[in-house]
TrEMBL record:
Its EC number is 6.2.1.3. This is long-chain-fatty-acid--CoA ligase. It is an enzyme of class 6 (ligase). One of its GO terms (cellular component) is endoplasmic reticulum membrane. GO terms for biological process: long-chain fatty acid import into cell. Keywords: Cell membrane, Fatty acid metabolism, Ligase, Lipid metabolism, Lipid transport, Membrane, Nucleotide-binding, Transmembrane, Transmembrane helix, Transport. It is found in: Cell membrane. Residues 86-398 form the AMP-dependent synthetase/ligase domain. The keyword Signal does not apply. GO terms for molecular function: long-chain fatty acid transmembrane transporter activity; long-chain fatty acid-CoA ligase activity; nucleotide binding. Belongs to the ATP-dependent AMP-binding enzyme family. The chain crosses the membrane at residues 24-42. InterPro entries: AMP-bd_C, AMP-bd_C_sf, AMP-binding_CS, AMP-dep_synth/lig_dom, ANL_N_sf.
Length: 644
């Protein structure tokens, strides 16, 4: 259409313009008018988001071409190679700010070489050996990963909140023979050290000394190691399909699963910053844990891909957030849904809009909090994401429309085929027709998101967990023999192609930005002296993102609920976000015909003592026990007087 209009306008100008100057003037005027007319026409025909669609598609195409080039290059061009090139181009540029210290690209490069050489000498690491990182948010996390990459070694990113059984499970399922930890996590490692020792695991701590037999100090060895570059031959066999990382995600087994992240997946994830318009001149603020795919892949790896400066914080602090942003001239921030709420709950200040943040990248922002955040802190482009660490389909809301997690376009659907299918919430399974095929959800109807498994959009699965990997594969979806990845999430697509996240199905719910496996929590509850069975689920709470933990339990015969003991068990063995805040005592637990515990009715009933005849209890952190939940307490929780 544009070409035809341009041709006709050109003929018209040539016919009616005679002198050169007049011809040029009319030519420019016609072009300007044509551009305005064309843009107006395209916006009318394709909608008000046409320009944003075009910009995003163009950036995505360029990134796709880059990834194809990297994949075909021999040897394979990894994120590490990109970092090393960046260190050569701008060695003095600040790589990361941390607690008053700053480290340049050259310094991080040298430090990572020292780590690699120390581990090579002490742990005898070779290409392909997996190393588990049990570390807090510190710069050493970053250069230890880079050091391992220089040796061609995958890194398993352990959640530093896990303990005991969960820690051992996460460590063992990735097949690691080496564990690296820090002094502040030494106690947690000592709990499982006998088992690690029995299995012949080498444990290293990033300190100058350690008196615990079986834990070797590594800091001094790193300091004395050479910082000379390492040969590429050490990682000569690393390909785009090789495992780069293991990142842990909760599932229905009750214990975290190790999602296999290939080098191809690392590139795809770290391109997210580039896809939304972040540049090398931006400064990225990482306050999410580096063991998370958000903090590690989108944050750190994305920062390396952009060649930017990052600001790392040990943990999120709402009171210090904007001070940090002003101090370091932060232009891009990360968030999870709760992050924005915490920021909105801080006391209002005159300088709330005095910052340079232009992008906020994350997921889980509730519409009301999203709006409040923008109204208070200014014109920040919120780029809400949807995706899973192990998944093969994701979305980005590259527009400024509030409340959506993404937008469908033809290019995205071509390269990453997906669909929404009808899902039976009660039976927790897809609805199928008489031919045994799934039924696609209508536009505007909530459905289960599934992504077609192809060479371009693979699903690698979980380490040492074939059962759970197979459970995520859905067969015979739209035609016999096809194969899709089951996201386990309910989404909706409206008439304008915007994508909305509706809910999560199955045995996992999300609270405080963390996935919680209900069966893992149930296993801990049943270790309490008085509890026989436990059915764990998440319930919505007004004013909070996600679902908070609640459990319906039955008691052992002749026992009364031992509040203090139940509290002790959950606090000892579960991280804060996974602890059930509400307990409901029931005479028996309702199950399905296949003996699966029913949750739907319990979730709908919530925890209002007015509507529930069963005894209810609330986890009181101040009194360090579970206490009876009264109507007054319920009202205080709903009015946000009691913080959760």
């Amino acid at each position: 259409i544009c070409a035809v209009l341009l041709f006709l306008s050109k003929l018209s100008i040539r016919r009616y313009c005679h002198d050169t100057r007049g011809s040029m003037y009319m030519w420019l005027t016609a072009l300007a008018g044509l551009a305005i007319l064309s843009l107006s026409f395209l916006k009318t025909y394709f909608g008000p988001y046409f320009a944003q669609d075009c910009a995003f598609i163009w950036r995505s195409l360029k990134l796709g071409i880059r990834l194809t080039k990297y994949k075909k290059s021999k040897p394979f061009y990894s994120l590490l190679d990109h970092f090393l090139d960046g260190a050569k181009r701008h060695p003095d540029k600040v790589f990361v700010h941390f607690e008053g210290h700053q480290y340049s690209y050259a310094e991080v490069d040298k430090q990572s070489s020292k780590v690699a050489r120390a581990l090579q000498a002490e742990a005898k690491l070779k290409e392909g050996d997996t190393v588990a990182l049990f570390l807090p948010n510190e710069p050493v996390y970053m250069w230890t990963f880079l050091g391992l990459a220089k040796l061609g070694c995958p890194a398993a990113l352990l959640n530093f909140n896990i303990r005991s059984k969960s820690l051992l499970h996460c460590f063992s399922c990735c097949g690691a023979k080496v564990l690296i930890t820090s002094p502040e996590l030494q106690d947690a490692v000592e709990e499982v050290l006998p088992t690690l020792t029995e299995q012949g695991i080498s444990v290293y701590i990033l300190s100058d000394s350690c008196r615990v037999p079986g834990i070797e100090p590594l800091a001094g060895k790193i300091s004395n190691a050479s910082d000379e570059p390492l040969s590429k031959e050490l990682r000569a066999n690393v390909t785009v399909r090789s495992t780069a990382l293991y990142i842990y995600t909760s599932g229905t087994t009750g214990l975290p699963k190790a999602a296999v992240v290939t080098h191809e997946r690392v590139w795809a994830a770290c391109f997210i910053q580039a896809a939304v318009g972040v540049t090398a001149d931006d400064i990225f603020y990482i306050n999410l844990p580096l063991y998370h795919s958000a903090g590690f892949l989108i944050g750190m790896a994305g920062g390396i891909e952009r060649g930017m400066t990052m600001v790392l914080r040990r943990k999120f602090s709402a009171s210090q957030f904007w001070n940090d942003c002003r101090k370091y001239n932060v232009t891009v921030m990360q968030y999870i849904g709760e992050t924005l709420r915490y920021l909105c709950n801080t006391p209002k200040r005159d300088e709330d809009r005095q910052h340079r943040v232009r992008f906020a990248i994350g997921n889980g922002a509730r519409t009301d909090i999203w709006t409040e955040f923008l109204n208070r802190f200014g014109d920040i482009h919120v780029r809400e994401l949807y995706g899973a660490t192990e998944g093969n389909i994701g979305f980005i809301n590259y527009t400024n429309k509030v409340g959506v997690v993404g937008r469908i376009n033809y290019l995205h659907k071509f390269f990453f085929p997906h669909t929404l299918i009808k899902f039976d919430i009660e039976k927790e399974e897809p609805v199928r027709n008489s031919d045994g095929l799934c039924i696609e959800a209508s536009r505007g109807e909530t459905g289960l998101l599934v992504g077609k498994i192809t060479k371009r959009s693979p699903f690698v699965g979980y380490a040492a967990n074939k059962t759970q990997t197979d459970k995520k594969r859905l067969h015979d979806v739209l035609k016999k023999g096809d194969l899709y990845f089951n996201t386990g999430d309910l989404l909706q697509i409206d008439s304008e192609n915007f994508v909305y996240f509706m809910d999560r199905v199955g045995d996992t719910f999300r609270w405080k930005g963390e996935n919680v496996a209900t069966s893992e929590v149930g296993d801990i509850l049943t270790t309490a002296n008085s509890i026989l069975e436990a059915n764990v689920y998440g319930v919505k709470v007004e004013g909070h993102e996600g679902r908070i933990g609640m459990a319906a339990v039955t008691l052992k015969e002749g026992e009364d609920f031992d509040c203090a003991d139940a509290y002790k068990q959950v606090v000892t063995y579960l991280p804060a976000y996974a602890r059930p805040r509400f307990i409901r005592l029931q005479p028996c637990l309702e199950v399905t015909g296949t003996f699966k515990m029913k949750k739907v009715k319990l979730v709908e009933e919530g925890f209002n003592p007015v509507n529930i005849s069963d005894r209810l209890y609330f986890l009181d952190t101040e009194k360090k026990t579970y206490i009876p939940l009264t109507e007054e307490m319920y009202n205080a929780i709903m009015s946000l007087e009691i913080k959760l």
